[in-house]
Amino acid sequence: MSVTPRIAVISPDKNLLAHLELRLQSRGYQVVPITSLSGVLGFLYSDPPDLILMNLCVKDAGVRQAVKELKADSYFSMIPVIGIIPQSTEEVSGWDKLPVDDFVVEPINYTELFSRISLALQRIQRIFDNNPLTRLPGNTSIQRAIDLALGKPMAVCYVDINYFKPYNDTYGFSRGDDVIRMVARIMSNVVREYSEGGFVGHVGGDDFVFVVPLEKAETICQTIIDNFSGVASDLFGEFEKKQGYYLAKDRSNQEQKIPLLALAIAIVPTNTPVMQHPGKVAEVAAELKKLAKKSARSSYVLERRRKPSS
Q1: Is 304 found in the same domain as 167?
Q2: Does residue 111 share a domain with residue 19?
Q3: Which of 70, 106, 154, 262 could serve as 162's disulfide partner, Cβ 3.0–4.6 Å?
């Protein structure tokens, strides 16, 4: 989403269009006024807005058809559409025939309209940012959380599931997804228990990040590892648990002994002079995770010191 949200205002009523444009610009929005429905999809496709405000008060079947076409097009389906409807139709029963995401009634209460626009933009940002598998915040939110932690007695903790790819290849994507969701739940529950206001995010795949107070970081990491170890063994049979590995073929079709799943966690304090940029945090975390991954067991690393855990 652009830094300054762009709103396309579609209205054959030029007077209302001009008034809306003025009021929206006064709130700092960029406005794209559209009076003609001819080629509106092509126009929007060339430069998609962040939100569409559409005047549905006019008795023009083409306006309503335009809404349907916008929502039926996969490219536009996620763009929020707020409809302006006559007061007499405030209680509409057939919203499936008018697939807007929200509405305001005419005469427009602009305080309400601005609130609905703000909420719609925030909602779509969360939808695009959140990981669809775990529902955890994604990279945009992670970046923001790290930025807020810099210079404070906080810890950014990067989590990786060791040996996840061979597990995913051997046991199937469905079970791999179950593992990722399990780790997400464990992390979220532990961080919530030990750190009010702590942050948990999902970078993607089997990579996670959480941000907690530095003084609680090791306790939280150890608790996550303990909880994971207690559940992860159920993912394997008795033979695999006893041996500590399972057999799987590599890309050369050679059978290999693959260790059981484990967590590698890098703890990066953010109150040190060298941690002045998120890029540096990620760089240090990558080095620490390499150390953690040397252990066949789950482990966390703080300031280049490895602490293995059973």
Answers
A1: yes
A2: yes
A3: 262
